[in-house]
Amino acid sequence: MTQLAVHDPATGERIAELPADDAASVAARARAARTAQPGWAALSLQERKACIGHFRDGVVRDLEALAVTMTRETGKPIRMSRNELNGLLPRIDFFLKEVDRAVATETVLDEGGMKERIEHVPLGVVGNISAWNYPWFVGCNVILPALLTGNAVLYKPSELASLTGLEIARLLHQAGVPKDVFVPLVGGRDVGAALLEQAVDGIFFTGSHATGQRIAQAVGSRFIRLQLELGGKDPTYVCDDADPRMAAESLADGAMYNTGQSCCSVERIYVHERIHDAFVAAFVETVQGFKVGDPMSEDTYIGAITRAAQLDVLDAQVAEAKAKGAVLHLGGHRLRGPGNWYEPTVFGNVDHRMALMREESFGPIIGIQKVKSDEEAVTLMNDSRYGLTAGVYTPSAERARGLLAQLHAGSLYWNCCDRVSPRLPWSGYGDSGVGLTLSKYGIQAFTRPRAWHLRAA
Ligand code: NAD
What we know:
Strand order of the largest sheet: 12-13-14-11-10-16-17
Strand content: 15-25%
CATH topology of the largest domain: Aldehyde Dehydrogenase, Chain A, domain 1
GO molecular function, one term: oxidoreductase activity, acting on the aldehyde or oxo group of donors, NAD or NADP as acceptor
Bound molecules: nicotinamide-adenine-dinucleotide
Domain Aldehyde dehydrogenase: 4-450
CATH architecture of the largest domain: 3-Layer(aba) Sandwich
Structural class: alpha/beta
Keywords: Oxidoreductase
Family: Belongs to the aldehyde dehydrogenase family.
InterPro entries: Ald_DH/histidinol_DH, Ald_DH_C, Ald_DH_CS_GLU, Ald_DH_N, Aldehyde_DH_dom
């Protein structure tokens, strides 16, 4: 059997060796899931909800140990690991509360002996290929509504968050979800690719645009449900009437939280020239206050870079930005190892010739560009192939609404950023993906609306 080595990105140390799946085991486990799924779907919704409720109890009970595991394998600062797990609880509560309404059978006509009904039936067996940066959030955004609505789930956690993936499986199984209904598959891209070859009814993917394209090519001709939650290059505009310090403190957190490794991290900032200098000074001062260090320390804000290969991406963006005239206000270098480390990095005088302002950085690095007008800001914010989130800072609700309505993004923020709500749909424009999770629509995404035409004889 092949093995998957797990490393701590903060130290480079090997912390586990896991038995991994291969093409044959993936096929066998997919067949078992197909056999088990009808029994799971035949349970009442209340019975499935009870299992997910027990899963929630397990997360609460084991929270500290789960946070430590996530920090050790991803380098996420321990406080942020706890935040993710605590933030998961209201998501679970939302799914448990909303699912009855989201999948209730609707009678849409009842007239002259004729009835029309919409019934939401499970897709069947779905595959979930997931990312490492918020493994509990992005995993559970798919896994929980899929299970609640009666699907079996083949779950391929990221190879960089496999210990966490196995903890999710342990807690679901302990909570009463049968082992063939929720099936973790351990391994890297080969195991993900093997999963795509199985006779599944849907593929739900969270990860990079490049992998999303490969997945779309692999399954596109099969006409199964395909959702792709991909990267972003999320912009924010700070208007001339905004409080520069308030905006800077909020956006520094939005750019650097989770070491900048969030799909909705702020990745581009445009500031009106009237408050530009005050904003940059406050931004740099805020970032200088972020403690870089051991992810297990309570006061660490910037942890390790989880994927070693991302260091090359950051180096290349820094070198190109400098060569094209950007001004480096802070950072700009790797930190000495062992492990994967990068200084929090702030550039000014940037423009859209630079990859720093066009391609996802996925690290603690940001470019700040001066603009002359709202029109210029809107044009630059929309000058991207991505469209996950976009934001505006101004005290004026009317100005914000007018600006935000022009932006090509799935989520719009006024005086806030880097925020996800279970009550709202999470989706992207353009290369940020297709389909959505969260909200009632993100529950219905795991069902097929079936039409019933019923005439009484
Ligand atoms: P990735 O694309 O490298 O890997 C994602 C998953 O795909 C992993 O489980 C990996 O093993 C698997 N995989 C890789 N190649 C495959 C192949 N050929 N076939 C099948 N599976 C394959 O992404 P990552 O580094 O894990 O995650 C970071 C990316 O995810 C960023 O771009 C980030 O913006 C994005 N992301 C998006 C959201 C969102 O909600 N839109 C949320 C979190 C992360």
